[in-house]
Structures are given as C-alpha cells and as structure tokens.
C-alpha cells in the first residue's frame, strides 16, 4: 500500500500514456539491447516504461510522460528514416529536446558526416555540434573551443576524412603542439618522430576509428595523411589540404599566428582546444585564447563554443566538468574576498605635512 504522505507530497499528478510503434523491428531498435534505451529513459526522465509487443506504456508525472512521448515519437521517426539509435544517442536526444524542442532533434541528428570503420554513422549529437559541422562546411577557418568530450577533434577528423574520400582535398594534415601535460617525456627512447608520437596518439586513434587501420596506415605512408608536431609547420604553404590543429590551447601567440598563415588555396583549417586546460609555462599567454579575442567578425572564419552540456562521453564526465567549474569559481571568489579584506585593512598613508603652531 502506498504511503499517503508520499502521494500528497507530489507536485505533479501521475499520469500514463501509450505509444504504439506498430512493427517489431522498429520496436526492437527503439528499445535497444536488453531494453537499455528504455532503462535510460526511466533513469533520466523519472518515468516508468513498460513494453507489451509493439506498445510502450508510460507512467509518471504528467510533464515527464509528455516529454517521453515526444522523445519516443522522434526516435521512432529517425529509425524509420534509416538512423541507428544507440544508448548514447538517446542520452543526447534528451539533452537536445530539453534545449531545443523535438523539431530540432531531426535537424541535429539526421545529418551524417561519415560512416566509421565499424560501419557506424558519425553524426552531430548536440545543437552545438551541428553548428560546428555546418561551420566547417561553410568556412575555411573554424575554431572549436570547449571542454573535453564535446567531440571537437572527433568531428573535425570525420569531416576531414569525408572531404578526402570525396576528393574535395588531396591530403589531411594533423598537428599538435608538443607540450607535456605535467609529465616530462624527453627521456623516451627513439628518434624525433618516435619521441613526439605520444603527443599525437589521440589523432591516430580518431583516424583509425574513421577507416580501417590498413587503409589509414597506407595513407600515412603515402603522405596523404600527415601527422606531425606543430613545429614542423613552419615555412610551409598547405594547398588542397584539410588541416587540423588539436590541443591549440597549448600554442603560444606566435605559434598560432604561424599556423594560421600556413593556409593555402582550396584548404580548410580547424583549430580545436580547451582554454581551461593550458599546459604552457606560467606567464605565457595561450595562442588559442588570444586568437579567440582578436579574430571574431572575420568573414570566412567562425568560432564555435561548446559547454559541458555538449559532452558526449560517459554522463559522469559532464558532472566532473561541472564540479571542477564550481571549485574554480569558489576559489576565485575566495581570492577576491581575501584581496578585498586586505585592501580594507591597509591603513591610509599618513600626511607628510606638519600641523602649524599658533
């Protein structure tokens, strides 16, 4: 028997709804492996979802049930249009609909960029990601700035591979500044290429996810795909190329200017980074931060900003980012308060003049 106090405490009247998906194949795709998609909806939206054949029975607070009905109908439409739906897609769909409504879900998630080597579609999963991909298509220089896990480098790589396979460019150039993230790697054995390889590993990982390893290796050996530290860019002109500069927050102002002036004819450049994770020595200004402040309002150049809402990794990553942001804000507030107290306690300087005697 239900606790009467609990029922009285509810602010929203419980309700129920039924959605008939109408065919078994679409129902199975919507529910996910072992109903993982339905379980995710229950956890995130506070509703109960039961399945009977092709029917989904929803119960819970009225506003949550209404939202879930729209979500299910939108996901069903995407499945019928040929879009595979996975648990992470449901996670992002909830975010997108919560911010932009059901109509924007189709606009965001039905624009595939590329099929990965596992035959999985790579497509935007948030409104900011959709704007980012559109910006890359429309502009020759694009900055993607935001926290880890927002897909900045991954989507840029997908666009680069897509342009290469469609013969819109002749090569891909991937670059990163060789700056340690608090760890000294100079002791590593090998020649220069082998020493900088740890810095470039994330770019290789993304590339191998886009195409079979054998084909990626062949492209690298032929020079069609070049992965190099930023220092190797000096003095070059990059024509017919799709150039990606990753971890750009670790460039100096001079390095950023050098990179941006490498762009040749029929080329695109995408610069990605997180201005909150700068590993430069204290006192050195980040080239990414500087470029963001001076390069706005230039035709053909676009700056796309991401937030923790756009994180597409494990859901806990978003919470971790928010926790660190709260900590940093508290530290800044405490520092400002301490400075204000010190200013208030500082005595006023004594007057240098002597009182006149009568």
Q: Mind explaining what this structure looks like?
A:
- With 358 residues, the protein is of the alpha/beta class.
- The chain has two domains: 7-110, Ribosomal Protein S8, Chain: A, domain 1 (2-Layer Sandwich); 121-313, 3-Layer(aba) Sandwich (Rossmann fold), CATH 3.40.50.
- 47% of the residues lie in helices and 15% in strands.
- The protein has 13 helices and eleven strands.
- It has a six-stranded parallel beta sheet with strand order 8-7-9-10-6-11. Strands 1-3-2 form a three-stranded antiparallel beta sheet.
- β4 (114-115) and β5 form a beta hairpin.
- Residues 1-10 have low confidence and may be disordered.
- Belongs to the PhoH family.
- Its main location: cytoplasm.
- It comes from Cystobacter ferrugineus.
Notable features of this structure?
358 residues, Ribosomal Protein S8, Chain: A, domain 1, Rossmann fold, 2 domains, 6-stranded parallel beta sheet, 3-stranded antiparallel beta sheet, 13 helices, disordered N terminus, cytoplasm, P-loop_NTPase, PhoH-like protein, ATP-binding, nucleotide-binding
List the helices and strands and how they pair.
Elements: H1 4-9, E1 14-20, H2 24-31, H3 36-45, E2 48-52, E3 55-61, H4 62-80, H5 87-100, H6 102-109, E4 114-115, E5 121-122, H7 127-138, E6 141-145, H8 152-165, E7 171-176, H9 192-210, H10 213-222, E8 225-229, E9 241-245, H11 253-260, E10 268-273, H12 287-294, E11 301-305, H13 315-345
Parallel strand pairs: 6-10, 6-11, 7-8, 7-9, 9-10
Antiparallel strand pairs: 1-3, 2-3, 4-5
């Amino acid at each position: 028997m239900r606790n009467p106090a609990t029922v009285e405490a509810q602010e929203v009247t419980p309700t129920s709804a039924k959605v008939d998906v109408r065919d078994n194949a679409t129902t199975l795709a919507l529910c996910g492996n072992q109903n993982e998609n339905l379980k995710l909806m229950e956890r995130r939206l506070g509703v109960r979802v039961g399945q009977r054949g092709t029917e989904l029975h929803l119960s819970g607070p009225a506003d949550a049930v209404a939202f879930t009905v729209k979500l299910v109908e939108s996901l069903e439409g995407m499945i019928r249009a040929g879009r595979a739906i996975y648990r992470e897609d449901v996670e992002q769909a909830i975010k997108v609909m919560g911010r932009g409504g059901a109509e924007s879900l189709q606009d965001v998630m039905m624009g595939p960029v590329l099929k990965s080597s596992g035959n999985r579609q790579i497509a935007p999963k948030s409104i900011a990601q959709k704007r980012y991909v559109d910006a890359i298509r429309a502009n020759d220089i694009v900055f993607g700035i935001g926290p880890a896990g927002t897909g900045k480098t991954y989507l840029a790589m997908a666009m680069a591979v897509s342009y290469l396979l469609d013969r819109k460019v002749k090569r891909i150039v991937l670059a990163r500044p060789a700056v340690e993230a608090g760890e000294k790697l100079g002791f590593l054995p090998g020649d220069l290429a082998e020493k900088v390889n740890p810095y470039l590993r994330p770019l290789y990982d993304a590339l191998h996810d886009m195409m079979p390893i054998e084909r990626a290796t062949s492209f690298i050996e032929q020079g069609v795909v070049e992965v190099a530290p930023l220092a190797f860019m000096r003095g070059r002109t990059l024509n017919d190329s799709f150039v990606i500069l990753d971890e750009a927050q670790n460039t100096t102002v001079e390095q950023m200017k050098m990179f941006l002036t490498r762009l040749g004819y029929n080329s695109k450049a995408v610069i990605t980074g997180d201005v909150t994770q700068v590993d430069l020595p204290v006192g050195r200004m980040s080239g990414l931060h500087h470029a963001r402040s001076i390069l706005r309002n230039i035709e053909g150049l676009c700056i796309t900003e991401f937030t923790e809402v756009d994180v597409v990794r494990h859901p806990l990553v978003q919470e971790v980012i928010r926790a660190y942001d709260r900590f940093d804000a508290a530290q800044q507030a405490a520092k400002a308060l301490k400075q204000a107290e010190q200013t208030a306690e500082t005595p006023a300087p004594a007057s240098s003049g002597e009182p006149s005697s009568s």
